Amino acid sequence: MSIVAAYSLEVFFNDLVGASLRTKKVEASNGTSAYLVGLLSEFSRPERAHDQTLHRPLAFLLDEAIREPEAATRFEKLRALGDGVLYVSGFFGDHFEARGIDQSYVSSIGSRAYGSASSMLRSGSSTKSLEQQATTIDIFGELATHFEGFVMVIADVADAAIAHAPTGSKQLVKLYERWLKTGSERIAGALSEQGLVPTRPVKGVLH
Question: What gap in Å lies between CA 97 and CA 112, rounded to an integer?
Fold first, then answer.
């Protein structure tokens, strides 16, 4: 059953990532597209719900990763930080906003983490084989260079996933709240399918 569930997640996110890359007009190599699918599938597992990106200062996590003396562990910490920032920025962007953290700063942390991981592979300081390095270098470099574009893709995937979720009264409220924050056309369409026309409250009007 776990194998079937994992396969289903891969297929589900593969379709969403492909559609979102086209919708947002973000170019990605096949390797990077597949990496995004794997990232989304991994973070969808319950055990990843308490990822440290949500609970620890990003600058601290980056400094800790860069200062890690063991090369293999340093690479993994950098990769994990990049993954965490990318996922959280897309799915829970309001988390950073609520804490008064500018999104451009968050993106700079994620981009630097991926860029540092890519540099490690280029210098050959990780424990990966040459073949693995050849297929991975461009992926992390690509994620670092176009980090903000990939955040938009992940956010669009999040909107699509939420829009496809079962709709009860609480879910409709969450959909509307996310639409107010993002203005997502996907979510607006999902609300319309439920007979609701999303409109923003008029400021200064009392009811």
Answer: 20
